[in-house]
Each structure stands twice: as C-alpha cells, then as structure tokens.
Amino acid sequence: MYMDVINRIRDKARLDPKRIIFPETKDPRVLEAVEIIRSEGIAEPLLFAREDMEEFQKEQFAYLLYEYRKGKGLTLAKAREFMEDQHFYAAMMLRCGFIDGMVTGAAHSTADVMRAVIYCLEINDRIGLVTSAFLMAVPDCVYGEEGVMCFGDCGVIPDPTSAQLAKIAVSGAQFFQDVMDKPARVAMLSFSTKGSASGELVEKVRRSVELAKDLKKDFFIDGELQLDSALVPEVAALKLKSSDVAGKANVLIFPTLDAGNIGYKLTERLAHARAIGPIILGTLQPCSDLSRGCSVEDIVDATAVTVVRAQKRSLGNQNSFVNLDKHYVYSGL
Which end of the chain has fewer CB atoms surrounding its CB within 10 Å, N or C? Predict the structure, then answer.
C-alpha cells in the first residue's frame, strides 16, 4: 500500500522535474540513484564535485555569504574558507536560484550538511528554526496515510524547548501537507496521555501544543499523547473523549532528538520501513540530508520529495524570497 504513495510522489515529481544538485560524486549509491532519477525523469540531476567549482564564482559566493552573515560576525576571510567546501558552494547555488534543490549526506555527516544549510540558505521568518523530518513509509501498515507518516525532529535539535517543539510541529505539518496533499494530524508525543502522568517533561510537551495551535490555528494538533493513543483508534477511544488527532495521527512529533532518532531507526529496521530523509525544514530553499545508511531507493525517493517541495515553492511568489544584485552572475553550468 505504501508503495502506491511513494509512486504517486514520484509521479508528481515527473510532472515538473526540477534542477537538483548532488555534491557527492564518489559514492556509488549516489551515482546509481542519479542514473535512475535521470532515466525516470524525476528530476534534472546535477552531479557536482569540488573540481567543478570556479574560482571567480567562489569569490562571488564568498562575498555574498559575507554580506548575508557579517551582522553575525562572519568575516570575508572565513566566508572564502567556507567556499572551498562543495557543500557551501552548492548551497549558495541553491540560495541564488541557479538550482532548485539539494540532496546530499550519503557520505557526509549531518553536522557537515547542516553547517552549509544554516550559513547559506534562507530561514523561514515565520518559523525561525531549522529542523528536520522523515517521511516514513511502513509496509502492511494501517496507520497514518496508507502507511505513510511524518516523524520529527529526528536529526537536528537535541532537546527542544516548548517553543521549538511547536515550530517543529508546524514545520512537519506543512511539509506533510505539501508532499501528501492530505490534512496533517499532528500528535505531540510523550509518555503521558492528557495528564496520565506529570512532571517537567510532560509539561514541556503540553505547553508546546498550545504554542503550536497559536502559531498555526488551522492545523489539527493535539497532545500530550502516548504513541498508541496517537495511532490506534481503539486505544484513543479508551483514553480520550474526543480528538481530531488521537487514533488517526499522521505526523508524530517526538519530545527529544533521542526519542525521534531511536523511533525512526526502530521503525525502519524492525518494520522494514522506508525512511525518506532527513528532509531539512525551516529553510525557504528545499534540501534533503540523507542518512549515511541510506539505500539507492532512499536517495531516489528523497529527490522526488525535494522536487515536489520545489514545485510548491515555484507556485508561490519567488520574488519575495531572493533579491540579488544583477552584478552577481553564476558563470558555470
């Protein structure tokens, strides 16, 4: 069943393939995935190595990055140093609109990828937070949307505050709706369901629910909920009188990075689920940070998701996102 959903996402990507950069050219999984992506028309892939960087463009990107970040203490010398890294260079290509999305991380740590993302890409002002999510596709599963759920945050923020959890929830819900074209039903997870336990950890999640609802009033968000209360209708009926989320959640927000990372890997390995991501959320430009344990199919699927997100972005007012002086012109490609 979940493969129907994955195939629909790939089909949506094929309707308007976008330019996706892959700044890892030595990983055989990436090379094989790019061949599939190209042959199936999912995207217009660009394999990009450090040798492909141009000196003139590195200097232009370094100066732009310095202009973006000098208020936060970045020096021009440090910006030039960053531009020796192909991930920073590729991220600046994405920031400046020369490509539509980036997929990387198969051979690099999340820390390596996130440094380039946080320094170079634009942050959504409304969210003000970079986070991540996995699209989890579970075979023979009756939960979520045909076995597909969003898990967040599984890769970026170790111990989010209530305010951060609220933003993670809204980002995950928006991502799920953009990709799945289904209403998001967000469960803020805990070891407690609606007061069945108490303490600081429970209170953190409880506060995040109200903050998330204030941030995006038209989303279905509920908590604090134990996992079974979030997913299983029979359990939800026993524990809650009414909820738009309990028993039918499709977006699961974990209270810490520990819980999220363990949760997605347990689901992936024990339930033989496909883990698509981590998908970087909170940036205006779409980017996916692959797990270093990813398969070729994971890379293809992450690319399809990145293309669909780029399609959504292209439907909006792109002129409000990036304003570049016409003096800076990309001379490559």
Answer: C
